[in-house]
């Protein structure tokens, strides 16, 4: 601090030391800089001293002036005590008390009480003056403000200030002195505007918290008179704003009320008294509150966008702005902060309580849309709940992903899966920031989630949402609610009535999708749908709306699809139910087949883009110029990583619904050819072994996770080999989640490459020379299955991937001559599979179309049947492992169980098991009469060995009749029993055996039909040119030999069936290899049989055709047809 002695100019400072002769240039510059810093520091100190001195002088002067005014007030009060209500006298006192009043001064309290008492004796005169002259109105406003301050004094008088507030703010009391209603509204508008701008609601809230006694729960009765008065003081401005014609007044009142009462942290009086009383108050203007909040949403969103686009956030704190710029920034930040304080979890809770008596009237007043927008805008607060708050439903406890690759007893539980539940699984919710979540906030958010599931609220929205389908804001708000519930609870589609109800509203689902499409068309290349398809993060303003719309659409549509049978899915002629024609079917399918094709194409591109975003490269592939053009910044990437939970869920639900559409297309074939495959995929297909789809993949993916920044690898990460690259992770994700985008031939190449690498690791390179580890096996031809089952038990041969050396024993008990170079093993495996799957053996049954599936009643034949299915699964896995094609027509639903990630199949697969039952169940679903008349109950009859047993589909099912209300449950339970329950143990054992040889993860790349092709080959015409190019010849045969020329000429005259008979005659399989005859191992071989009198014969174990040298084409054709149609092979040798 500097004293002022009258000198206003700085005296020059002279340095008498002279200039140093030894100073260099750097020293001079440094000293000049130091002196400049000293001068700047001195200037700042002087300026600071001037400010402090000015403030001090002002304070001292005001204090002296107030003391003087107090003396004048007291003197005047003593002199004119009997004439205070005269205008001049009252004006004299009011002017001074509003100037010097200080709540900390005891005498000021007494002065205020005394003047208020005089005013209350005759309020009419003061009110008349306030209406006629603004200066009196201003004095009264200040006086009422002092009364509120007086109420806050702990031991001060409360009766008089409270009566002042009631007298001069209650419309009923004012009407006794002023008859003009318009003047009354103007008067109250001015009074409350002044008070509200001075934290009226904040101060009333503090008063209530101080004076209200403790409360144990909700109450509609005021705890004391003071609480009742405060409630009325809070309510009056709200009621006035609803009637006032001044728009700004309502904005001020409701913003302050929302900020300080509805949105602030709850106290007991607010939570248990004020909010319940407002909810039950019929006069409370809930509609005006909704209108106000709806108007503030765009303002807050615009402020958020401006904040994200603020250049200071990009270029750092050194970005210089002018003083006016700073002022504008300060005001903008104040508004944003103000709105941020309004849209809190407590506002969400307050709205869900206050709407009790207004839900039904909202739609009539066209406010339901605004209501949905507000709830949707605040609903992201739900995501602040910690993971421990998630409700775990008991019937979902075992919904875990099938993991057949793990050899554990937990395999039994994989058949309790639900496709929908698993697809909705999300990453750890603890990643959401909950550090600032208080216990009060947590409890209120849990109540909000519960209230969002209220029947009346859900029904109101469902009944009226059809009227808002063209309002993008309402759709966005409702999707926000659904999306946040989905993120919070992975079983939300089953736990919350809102989501479950919307899932069966096709018009809503259709509107959401076409809203997304319309946004994409309007925004062009900057549309989120297009940018994400290209692997680019959209700009921040578009992301939240896009994600909530797309995720909600996928979840709801994915829930609807399993409930539609194929007829409903395809039939576009189903009519919407009309009141006059209630018997017409309701069309639940939101889209036509043509729209589904385009929809699936878009979702396919989005899913590929999400995979690219989920696993980014170490360095961005976009340069800075490209980032600028697309509006992408580093802050967008950071925001996306912070919201990895939401993006991970989006990827899961998109993949979920896309897989459902693809599965439906496999059955119905409504998509064009090559619709699902994508040619631009950059997968390491040239080295399939670089895709480690093995049991140890988890250890190698530890360094990279979806939608998370890439971190440095540690020593632990390298223990199981080098961590996988981003390209490998992307490839594996695609092959696991959406493998159908890769061409089938490429996936077969990947499988063969993985098998070849595994063979080299297990069998070694010496197997080509009949050396190395192998399994020696001697089996009797007459007891092929029994010997193989006994000698290939897991206890005897734990690893069937080793090379087999087979020695056959003839029916005479003698060893057959010859060394197994591979052909004997192929014969052994082919014959073993045929006898194992033979329905006469009892392990498998045939459907009406002669397809094989496990025998449900095999338990009556064998107690340890699971061991046999485990063994049969191992030998089938060995056949696929050795690329051996076998004629094995498996039922479609059984193939789905083998190839799918999910063990259970749904009712749509029932047609492949029992078409008649499937038809009857569909008839029951659409039955228009009373289902109870059919006399059905929840039981099923099971026949085994001539005995019939009645089994219950659910507890006490025999006493529960099937009615119109529970018939859907009956259909599901019946289909589940037929497809899953009765063969559950069979399939578990079979899959475990299959995965013991061939990791089942490798089969996830294929659909059920593609798995059938892997096992038995493709049902395509035989390409003779391909066979001719890859055919080998023995003896004196060569491509130009006359007999060979005649052979090919004879084959060209065969029809397709005859060609297949020839192929089966030579190779034991009527279907060509998957990738052509170049992959046939051993290759197709023709050898001279010598004697022209004999018929052609074959050795199927070596794919050898023994062909006599017939000369003419006619003779060749005749002999070949006789041989291949006789149905025998070796017997003709």
TrEMBL record:
The entry describes its oligomerization and partners as:
Interacts with 26S proteasomes. Interacts (via the HECT domain) with UBE2D1 and, less efficiently, with UBE2L3.
One GO term of the biological process aspect = protein polyubiquitination
The reaction(s) catalysed by this protein are: S-ubiquitinyl-[E2 ubiquitin-conjugating enzyme]-L-cysteine + [acceptor protein]-L-lysine = [E2 ubiquitin-conjugating enzyme]-L-cysteine + N(6)-ubiquitinyl-[acceptor protein]-L-lysine
Q: Where is the active site?
A: 1101
The answer on whether this UniProt entry bears the keyword Ubl conjugation reads: yes
Quote the protein name from its UniProt record.
Answer: Ubiquitin-protein ligase E3C
The pathway where this protein functions is: Protein modification; protein ubiquitination
GO terms (molecular function) for this protein are: ubiquitin protein ligase activity
EC assignment: 2.3.2.26
Residues annotated as transmembrane: none
Keyword hit for Ubl conjugation: yes
Q: Which CDD domains match?
A: HECTc
Q: Which organism is it from?
A: Glossina pallidipes
Q: Which family does it belong to?
A: Belongs to the UBE3C family.
Which UniProt key words apply to this protein? Isopeptide bond, Transferase, Ubl conjugation, Ubl conjugation pathway
Among InterPro entries, the record links this protein to: E3A/B/C-like, HECT_dom, Hect_E3_ubiquitin_ligase
**The organism's place on the tree of life at top rank:** Eukaryota
The UniProt record lists the HECT domain at: 796-1133
């Amino acid at each position: 601090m500097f004293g002022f002695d009258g000198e206003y100019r700085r005296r020059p400072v002279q340095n008498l030391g002279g200039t140093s002769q030894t100073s260099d240039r750097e020293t001079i510059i440094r000293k000049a800089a130091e002196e400049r810093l000293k001068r700047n520091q001195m200037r700042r100190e002087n300026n600071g001293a001037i400010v402090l001195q000015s403030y001090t002088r002002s304070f001292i002067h005001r204090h002296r002036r107030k003391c003087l005014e107090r003396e004048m007030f007291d003197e005047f009060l003593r002199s004119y005590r009997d004439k205070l209500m005269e205008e001049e006298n009252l004006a004299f006192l009011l002017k001074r008390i509003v100037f010097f009043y200080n709540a900390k001064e005891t005498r000021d309290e007494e002065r205020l009480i005394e003047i208020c008492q005089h005013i209350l004796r005759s309020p009419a005169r003061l009110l008349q003056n306030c209406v006629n002259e603004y200066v009196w109105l201003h004095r009264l406003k200040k006086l009422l403000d002092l009364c509120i301050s007086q109420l806050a004094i702990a031991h001060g008088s409360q009766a008089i200030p409270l009566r002042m507030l009631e007298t001069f703010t209650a419309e009923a009391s004012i009407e006794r002195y002023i008859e003009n209603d318009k003047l009354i509204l103007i008067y109250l508008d001015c009074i409350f505007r002044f008070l509200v701008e001075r934290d009226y609601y904040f101060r009333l809230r503090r008063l209530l918290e101080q004076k209200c006694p403790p409360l144990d729960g909700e109450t509609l009765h005021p705890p004391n008179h003071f609480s009742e008065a405060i409630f009325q003081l809070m309510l009056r401005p709200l009621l006035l704003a609803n009637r006032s014609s001044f728009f700004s007044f309502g904005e001020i009142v409701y913003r302050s009320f929302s900020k300080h009462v509805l949105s602030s942290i709850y106290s007991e009086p607010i939570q248990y008294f004020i909010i319940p009383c407002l909810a039950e108050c019929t006069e409370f203007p809930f509609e005006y509150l909704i209108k106000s909040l709806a108007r503030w949403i765009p303002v807050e969103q615009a402020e958020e966008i401006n904040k994200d686009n603020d250049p200071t956030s990009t270029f750092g704190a050194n970005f210089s702005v002018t003083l006016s710029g700073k002022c504008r920034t300060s005001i903008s930040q104040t508004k944003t902060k103000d709105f941020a304080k309004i849209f809190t979890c407590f506002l969400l809770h307050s709205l869900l309580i206050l709407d009790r008596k207004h839900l039904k009237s909202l739609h009539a007043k066209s406010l339901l849309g605004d209501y949905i927008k507000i709830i949707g805008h605040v609903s992201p607060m739900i995501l602040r709940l910690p993971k421990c708050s998630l409700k775990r439903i008991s019937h979902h406890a075992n919904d875990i992903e099938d993991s057949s690759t793990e050899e554990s007893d937990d395999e039994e539980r994989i058949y309790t899966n639900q496709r929908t539940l698993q697809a909705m699984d999300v990453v750890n919710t603890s990643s959401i920031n909950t550090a600032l979540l208080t216990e009060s906030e947590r409890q209120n958010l849990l109540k909000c989630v519960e209230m969002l599931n209220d029947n009346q609220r859900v029904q109101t929205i469902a009944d009226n949402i059809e009227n808002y389908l063209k309002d993008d804001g309402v759709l966005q708000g409702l999707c926000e609610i659904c999306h946040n519930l989905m993120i919070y609870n992975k079983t939300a589609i089953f736990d919350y009535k809102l989501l479950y109800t919307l899932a069966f509203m096709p018009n809503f689902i259709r509107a959401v999708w076409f809203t997304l499409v319309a946004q994409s068309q309007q925004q062009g290349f900057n549309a989120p749908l297009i940018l994400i398809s290209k692997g680019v993060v959209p700009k921040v303003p578009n992301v939240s709306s896009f994600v909530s719309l797309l995720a909600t659409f996928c979840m709801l549509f994915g829930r609807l699809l399993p409930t539609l049978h194929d007829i409903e899915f395809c039939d576009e002629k189903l009519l919407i139910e009309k009141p006059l024609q209630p018997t017409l079917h309701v069309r639940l399918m939101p889209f036509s087949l043509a729209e589904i094709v385009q929809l699936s194409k878009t979702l396919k591109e989005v899913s590929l883009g999400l995979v690219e975003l989920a696993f980014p490269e170490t360095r961005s592939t976009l340069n800075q110029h490209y980032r600028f053009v697309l509006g992408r910044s580093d802050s967008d990437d950071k925001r996306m990583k912070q919201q990895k939970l939401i993006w991970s869920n989006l990827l899961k639900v998109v993949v979920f619904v896309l897989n459902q559409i693809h599965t439906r297309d496999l059955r119905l074939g409504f998509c064009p050819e090559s619709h699902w495959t994508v040619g631009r995929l950059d997968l390491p297909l040239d080295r399939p072994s670089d895709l480690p789809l093995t049991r140890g993949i988890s250890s190698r993916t530890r360094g990279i996770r979806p939608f998370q920044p890439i971190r440095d690898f540690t020593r632990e990460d390298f223990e199981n080999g080098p961590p996988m690259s981003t390209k490998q992770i992307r490839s594996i994700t695609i092959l696991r989640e959406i493998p159908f985008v890769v061409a089938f031939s490429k996936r077969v190449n990947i499988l063969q490459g993985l098998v070849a690498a595994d063979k080299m690791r297990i069998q070694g390179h010496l197997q080509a020379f009949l050396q190395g580890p192998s399994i020696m096996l001697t089996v009797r031809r007459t007891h092929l299955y029994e010997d193989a089952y006994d000698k290939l038990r897991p206890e005897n041969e734990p690893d069937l991937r080793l090379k087999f050396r087979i020695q056959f024993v003839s029916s005479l008990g003698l060893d057959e001559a010859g060394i197994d170079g591979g052909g004997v093993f192929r014969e052994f495996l082919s014959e073993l599979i045929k006898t194992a799957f033979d329905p006469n053996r009892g392990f498998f049954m045939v459907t009406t179309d002669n397809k094989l599936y496990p025998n449900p009643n095999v338990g009556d034949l064998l107690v340890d049947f699971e061991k046999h299915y485990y063994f049969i699964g191992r030998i089938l896995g060995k056949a696929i492992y050795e690329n051996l094609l076998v004629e094995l027509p498996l039922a479609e639903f059984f193939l789905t169980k083998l190839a799918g990630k999910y063990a259970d199949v749904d009712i749509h697969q029932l047609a492949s098991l029992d078409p008649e039952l499937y038809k009857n169940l569909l008839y029951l679903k659409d039955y228009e009469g009373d289902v109870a008349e059919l006399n059905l109950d929840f039981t099923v009859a099971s026949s085994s060995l001539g005995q019939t047993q009645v089994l219950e589909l659910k507890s006490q099912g025999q006493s529960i009749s099937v009615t119109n209300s529970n018939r859907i449950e009956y259909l599901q339970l019946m289909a589940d029993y037929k497809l899953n329950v009765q063969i559950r143990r069979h399939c578990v054992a079979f899959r475990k055996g299959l995965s013991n040889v061939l990791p089942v993860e490798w089969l996830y790349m294929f659909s059920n039909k593609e798995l059938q092709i892997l096992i038995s080959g493709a049902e395509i015409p035989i390409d003779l040119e391909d066979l001719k190019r890859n055919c080998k010849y023995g003896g004196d045969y060569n491509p130009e030999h006359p007999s060979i020329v005649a052979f090919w000429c004879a084959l060209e005259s065969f029809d397709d069936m005859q060609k297949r008979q020839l192929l089966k005659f030579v190779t034991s399989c009527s279907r060509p290899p998957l990738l052509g005859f170049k992959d046939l191992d051993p290759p197709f071989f023709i050898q001279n049989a010598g004697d022209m009198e004999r018929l052609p014969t074959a050795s199927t174990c070596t794919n050898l055709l023994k062909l006599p040298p017939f000369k003419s084409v006619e003779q060749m054709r005749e002999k070949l047809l006789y041989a291949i149609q006789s149905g025998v092979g070796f017997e003709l040798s």
